[in-house]
Write a structure and sequence with these properties.
14 strands; Inositol_monoP_metal-BS; cell membrane; globular; Fructose-1,6-Bisphosphatase, Chain A, domain 1; Inositol_monophosphatase-like; metal-binding; D-Maltodextrin-Binding Protein, domain 2; single chain; 3'(2'),5'-bisphosphate nucleotidase activity; 2 domains; alpha+beta
Length: about 260
C-alpha cells in the first residue's frame, strides 16, 4: 500500500525547501527549451525524489527536472511517480504565490492519486480514484471537495484562464460561450479550481507536459471531474507515447452541449 500521508508530508517538505529560496534572492537559469529554471526547482526535485525512493523504492520516478529517460525504459512502466517539483516557475519568479509542488501516482496510464501543494497560499489538494475522494487542506482544516454542477441554461459559466498564456484558441473558445466569467490563476491550481467547484471549466488550448497536469488531474478525478482531450473528449492518458506532451484538453464535471461540439 502506498503511504499517501507520508507523500503528502513529502510535498510539504518540498514546499518548505522552495520557501527558503523564495524568501531571498535566487539564481535563475534557462533550460534547453528556453523555459526558466530556479534553484528552487532543483531543491524541490531532490527532496521529492529522495523521499519517494525511500518510501516506495520499487516505483520509478519521472520528474520534469530529470526527464532524460528513454521511451524503451518508460514503456515498461505499469506504475510510477510523475512529479513537477515546481509548477509555475514564472509565477515563482514574479513572486505572486501561485506556484505548486505536484506529485502524481500513475497506474496503467491513469493518474490514480495526486497531491498539489501551494506553499505561499498554504493550500494543499490531494486525492484520486484510488482513494475515492479529494480534499483541500488549509490553515482552517481539511474539507472534502467536489466539482460544481453544470450551470443551467442562460446562467454564467466560470471559466479558468491563464494569466501568462492565453492562446488565440482559448479566446475563440470563450467567445463562443454565451455567458462566462474568466477566473485567472497560475500553475496547476487552475485544474484544482475546477476540482473544488470554484470554476466550471478549464480549457487548456495550448501546450503542456504530462507532469504539468498529472497530480491535479488525479485530484480532479477524485472530486468527480474529468480532464478530457479537446477533440475526442476521451480522458487524458499518461506515458502512452514517446513524447510527454499533452494534447489540448478541457477540465470539467462532464461534457456539455454549451461547449462540446
Amino acid at each position: 500500500m502506498v503511504p499517501f500521508e507520508k507523500v503528502i508530508e513529502l510535498a510539504r517538505s518540498a514546499g518548505n525547501a522552495i520557501m527558503e529560496i523564495y524568501q531571498r534572492d535566487f539564481e535563475t537559469y534557462t533550460k534547453e527549451d528556453a523555459s526558466p529554471l530556479t534553484e528552487a526547482d532543483l531543491a524541490s526535485h531532490k527532496t521529492i525524489v529522495a523521499g519517494l525512493q525511500e518510501l516506495t523504492p520499487e516505483l520509478p520516478v519521472l520528474s520534469e527536472e530529470a526527464a532524460d529517460i528513454s521511451w524503451q525504459e518508460r514503456s515498461q512502466w505499469a506504475e510510477y511517480w510523475l512529479i513537477d517539483p515546481l509548477d509555475g516557475t514564472k509565477e515563482f519568479i514574479k513572486k505572486n504565490g501561485e506556484f505548486t509542488v505536484n506529485i502524481a501516482l500513475i497506474k496503467n496510464g491513469e493518474p490514480v492519486w495526486g497531491v498539489v501543494y501551494a506553499p505561499v497560499l498554504n493550500w494543499l489538494y490531494h486525492g484520486g480514484t484510488l482513494t475515492g475522494k479529494a480534499e483541500k487542506v488549509t490553515a482552517e482544516g481539511a474539507e472534502k471537495i467536489a466539482v460544481a454542477k453544470i450551470p443551467e441554461q442562460g446562467a454564467t459559466w466560470k471559466v479558468v484562464g491563464s494569466r501568462s498564456h492565453q492562446s488565440d484558441e482559448f479566446k475563440t473558445f470563450v467567445a463562443n460561450m454565451p455567458n462566462c466569467d474568466i477566473v485567472s490563476m497560475g500553475s496547476s491550481l487552475k485544474l484544482c479550481l475546477v476540482a473544488e467547484g470554484a470554476a466550471h471549466l478549464y480549457p487548456r488550448l495550448g501546450l503542456t507536459s504530462e507532469w504539468d497536469t498529472g497530480a491535479a488531474d488525479a485530484v480532479l478525478r477524485g472530486a468527480g471531474g474529468q480532464c478530457l482531450q479537446h477533440e475526442s473528449l476521451l480522458p487524458l492518458t499518461y506515458n502512452q507515447k514517446e513524447n510527454i506532451l499533452n494534447p489540448f484538453f478541457i477540465c470539467c464535471a462532464k461534457p456539455d452541449s454549451t461547449w462540446a461540439s
